[in-house]
Specification:
Blueprint lengths: L24 E6 L10 H9 L3 E3 L15 H6 L1 H10 L4 E7 L1 H12 L5 E5 L12 H12 L6 E8 L2 E8 H8 L7 H5 L6 E6 L3 H13 L7 E5 L6 H4 L1 H13 L2
Parallel strand pairs: 1-2, 1-3, 3-4, 4-7, 7-8
Antiparallel strand pairs: 5-6
Length: 255
Amino acid sequence: MIVASLTACVPSTPPTASSPAAGPLGIVLMHGKKGPPRYLVETASVLEAHGYLVVTPEMCWSDRRQYDRLYPDCLTEIDAAVADLRQRGARSIVVAGHSLGGSAAIAYGATHGGVAGVIGFAAADAFFGPSSQLPDIARAQYLVDEGKGDSLADFDHIRPSGRTSMRTTAAHFLSFVAPPAEQRTPAYAAQLHVPLLLIAGRQDSATMQYEARTYDRAPNNALNRYVEVNADHGGTLKAGMNPTLEWLASLMRGS
């Protein structure tokens, strides 16, 4: 387990964090880009076996939905998952996710109150900056500028397992891959005011380097953890379960 030294500026009006309270802890666990929630069943089952309440919503970046909303609007869907957990008796909420879901968890934790902690497994946002993606970003921007931002089209996309495409509108595509730099994952991490756990796979080098930069931006917190595991992108979920359970127990104890 690797713990980094962190420094960052704190916004003047941070969202209100919730301290872990006595009673069940609820976890919103989000899938990665073009993945269905069902691949999280094993992870959710392990967490539930340890007494946590878990919900795995289908987010708007699934293969079925393919960016059917703007990215900021997608984040608002997490509110419903949080409300579901609270209705089931959760006293504290942790927002977690794999890959793009992990990035969304960080963004949500940075911009919403009432969260006790954030977990990212191989967390990475939709745009790493590969030059091969730039032509489609330019094409989407052209369509938006021409008043055709609501037109459906196929856009080239990058994911750790290889190239793929998204059939969505130009405006929706741009909201994921070309947001202002201050809205990308490391910048969101700098706005966190709750503990952060990042699980990085050593066989997932590009994402691991991105996660390290993200972690370095997070404000100092005694419960922050950055953990490297011997796994590829998808394998971080299983390989990172033991450190995740240890971190959750520490979060509940507050130490």
